[in-house]
Amino acid sequence: xxxxxxxxxxxxxxxxxxxxxxxxxxxxxxxxxxxxxxxxxxxxxxxxxxxxxxxxxxxxxxxxxxxxxxxxxxxxxxxxxxxxxxxxxxxxxxxxxxxxxxxxxxxxxxxxxxxxxxxxxxxxxxxxxxxxxxxxxxxxxxxxxxxxxxxxxxxxxx
Length: 158
Hints:
five-stranded antiparallel β-sheet
């Protein structure tokens, strides 16, 4: 059972537990939207609620980004793959999306082509979910995490 002030992931959003009602429901506040509060059953029958990853798990995930395989679907099928990976609620799947969309758009720019709106949309969404969770695990703000991940991956590649 979680306690008040614990951070959790509900579906894909990072939340803080701000209350417990009648020992049956958690009251959650999204970390990136203070105005939205959710009531979630403590029983977690559908598995939508999970703990934030530890600092060690976060560091290991970041250090392993260079080894994550990119998605090799054609343009017609890739959006379905992005949707499946987002729904999986696995951080490694978010990394796959970020890495794939970044490399696809980078390749387009190098070939003087317009970047893909579809790739941009999923890149932004995956970054939001990943970096929000990593920011809690690593005790950094969103921008610091983004820079830390970029710097770490850049240093490993060299």
